[in-house]
# Entry
Amino acid sequence: MLIRGRRNRVSEGIRSLVREHHLQVSDLIMPLFICEGINKKSEITSMPGIFRLSSELIVEECRYLYSLGIPGVVLFPAIDDTKKDKTATESWNPDGLYLKTIRAIKAAVPELVIITDVALDPYSSDGHDGFVSDDGEILNDETLPLLARMSVAQARAGADIVAPSDMMDGRVEVIRQALDENGFTNVGILAYSAKYASAFYGPFRDALDSAPKKGDKKTYQMDPANVREALREVNLDISEGADMVMVKPGLPYLDVLRAVSEISDVPVAVYNVSGEYAMLRAAAQNGWLDYKKVVLESLTAFKRAGADMILTYHARETAEWMKK
Ligand code: PBG
# Structure
């Protein structure tokens, strides 16, 4: 045999020399759930190890994540049912939970990149990402000004990057214009461009109690069977001014991630979503999988498929492992 593939695998030293992709702590973004109250910490049942934290605990957590070398966080609020309405009014209340917490994080850890979520669902009495008409239709164009207003309020509170996760058409352009008109020319847009109508979001909706009251999200989120359509969405968002694009979910969509990373001329993020986290946790709790090994293997797979950054609930633990 002239050629033996195994020669390049004979020792850890050689394997590390020929390794093509490297996972780094600086690739990771940690999603955090914020709740009302003081010193409140409640575990999400379907996401063991992940907690809803009240404001001052979130600030503490952000300090810790930054000390681990994690460059950014993405924030989601658990809003009281009594504050939800059809137009997500609470989302631009400067004294509301979300904006207050953003200001507190910015003051405490100014270097940490704060990424905010732009969509109606956590604040919506309908549990949809857009405005719902009386006959149950999710109205695109009526939603856009609400998203713009939410984005500007988040930027004013200190968001470094706003991340529209709503999948309305034309939102990136409207948000870009609104940010610029209000002087936030340096606030970036991370567009959830290829976001699929996925059942893997289940635990997230438990965490925020944000599941749709009626119907599903299939008229705005993408059909899991499509990949060409993902490229179209990515190209549209880039042409509307997106600074970064995202593929979501992650592990079941690595082919989409690869395709997007090949055509995108802006950085590509992937969201390793709540259901993916829950699967690995549950298997590990049963003793069926080696948790640390499957997490590192999964996160490396995102790098191999072309991700520049990874939103993952494993970020905190991974950073701790990599520090040692
Ligand atoms: C809502 C939003 C969702 C997630 C992030 N933003 C859920 C949804 O679209 O229903 C899911 C994240 C996860 O599952 O971890 N705009």
